[in-house]
Design goal:
By secondary structure, this protein is mainly alpha-helical. It has 5 helices and no strands.
């Protein structure tokens, strides 16, 4: 019996793989996973720089190290979760907007930024959502303009 992993993929298999990887669900999920990883590293670095919990000097060194690592892990996991949610919402909404509009331009980024900012600020009420929408849309427009200024 031959090994199926050594055979080249068929045209149907390639088409199915392309269709799956180009779906908005895949893009949002993959961005969420990547955002989680980036947020984990970002949170770890920032928690190492900004240590806000006072260390109890009356405890042993081993206990102090455990406390510091526990605090760093809590901040890092929180940052990872936030980055994952933000990346998944932004990527998914940008993909859906681009699919609907059938264009790839700066307005997709602006719309996705508005959706992401408004969604992340949903607990703050309509004014907070509007501010989140405007702020994230402006940031998305600036980043998109910078990334594509040579096109």
């Amino acid at each position: 019996m031959s090994n199926p992993f050594t055979q080249p993929p068929t045209k149907e298999q390639k088409a199915a793989a392309d269709e799956f990887t180009n779906s908005c669900v895949f893009k949002a999920g993959f961005s969420g996973i990547a955002g989680y990883g980036i947020g984990l590293v970002f949170g770890l670095v920032l928690s190492g720089i900004e240590f806000s919990s006072p260390v109890d000097t009356s405890t042993s060194t081993k206990q102090q190290i455990k406390t510091v690592f526990r605090d760093m892990s809590t901040k890092s996991l929180s940052s990872a979760k936030n980055f994952a949610i933000m990346a998944a919402i932004y990527s998914g909404s940008e993909c859906m907007i681009e699919s609907y509009r059938a264009r790839n331009d700066i307005y997709n980024s602006i719309g996705a930024g508005c959706v992401t900012g408004g969604t992340l600020a949903v607990r703050t009420g309509p004014r907070g959502m509007a501010a989140g929408c405007a702020g994230f849309a402006a940031f998305s427009a600036a980043i998109d303009w910078y990334m594509h200024r040579d096109d």
